[in-house]
Amino acid sequence: MTQPAIAQDANAPAFKGPFAPLASNLADKGITLHATTYDFLNANPSFGLEPGHASNSTYWVTGMDLDLDKLAGLRGATIHLKETFFSFVYNNDDIAAEFGDNSLGYQTTYNMLSNQLSELTYEQKLLNGRLDIEFGRTHPNFYFTPMTCQTYNTCYQDILYFDAGYISPLHSTWGGRVKYNLTPSSYIEAGTFANDEDWHNRTGWDWALPIPPGTLNLAEYGFDTDPGGKYPGHYAITGYYNSGEHDDSYWTANHQPRGYFPDDPSEIVDGTSGAVLNTQQLIWREDGGSNAQPSPRTLTFYSGAGLSFDTTQPIQSDLYAGLTLQAPLLSRPHDQVGIKVRWEHMTDDYARFLAQANAYAGGSGQAFPQDKAIFELNANISLGAGIVLEPVVQYIVNPNS
Prior knowledge:
Blueprint: H1 4-7, H2 20-29, E1 31-43, E2 54-67, H3 68-72, E3 77-90, H4 95-99, E4 115-126, E5 131-138, H5 158-164, E6 173-183, E7 186-194, E8 215-225, E9 233-252, E10 266-285, E11 298-308, E12 315-326, E13 336-346, H6 348-360, E14 371-384, E15 387-389, E16 392-397
Antiparallel strand pairs: 1-2, 2-3, 3-4, 4-5, 5-6, 6-7, 7-8, 8-9, 9-10, 10-11, 11-12, 12-13, 13-14, 14-15, 14-16
């Protein structure tokens, strides 16, 4: 994961490196190019249905932003393009069976294709930038439920992926949002995004699709505390409603328990909804806010809370909280270390389904624990040149299958 503070010094020129003259020349004309590489290596030493395995995926995220004011005289207009290429894929086709749990976050996707259109949108800013409209091929993760923790691979919200209907963040769908800045430090926004049941098999460029089976609709209010000050924070609350259909967690179409009748089709339920709260607040500075040190030690508290209003979905609530210490060694101001605790609660119906499915498969059929806890140690280690190593270790209580 590339950290902005590492990628570019605030006192340095906008462009550095061997391609700086070309990049500067293109930017003057309204064309900005960017590229980021993510590599995810996962292993389960003593966890999951098949312990002792590993998997890897590398994502090459390339993009271009076209400033239409400079290129065509359209004030406040921009076109965003992002294409992702996949490589160094190892053991990703059966990762779910090996890890056997949702604790790892949204696991690196098994990619059916070698590349994917991640974004192609038209953005228009109006009212001196207070109103922002964007639409096209995109993803709600670009706009809603802002990431508050620093470890990219485990900063997820299960309510969004298992209940709300999020697809993998680098796969695009038709959608858009409207954002209005109420003040310089607060905003409201709303958006709608098409459901795509076959997104694994699409490049993102295949636009001749049938009418989507429902839409994911979101609304969010967010604000900053002490923006630009000594103790900044960000808070956002997001509500969602997905109008599409989903399988009932417990009942079949014949109103029989799914666990005992696995060959019967599931009962179909219309619509699902919920809410997510994300917070991030700097709570301590070693210099007390005096700015006596250029990169002081700081401590940030963050949290996330997701609640599903739908008892037919697998997960009822997903809560986490953590602390991040910036610059644990003053000689390495860009490094971070942190701890996080997560608690997740299954719906009653889904817990009953798991117990009955276990009995049908020859197990004991005993009551399945509905609560799960995850204890995590994490770090960001700067390797220079905009590169960060993010090791994460988790201990999980009551993992599920």
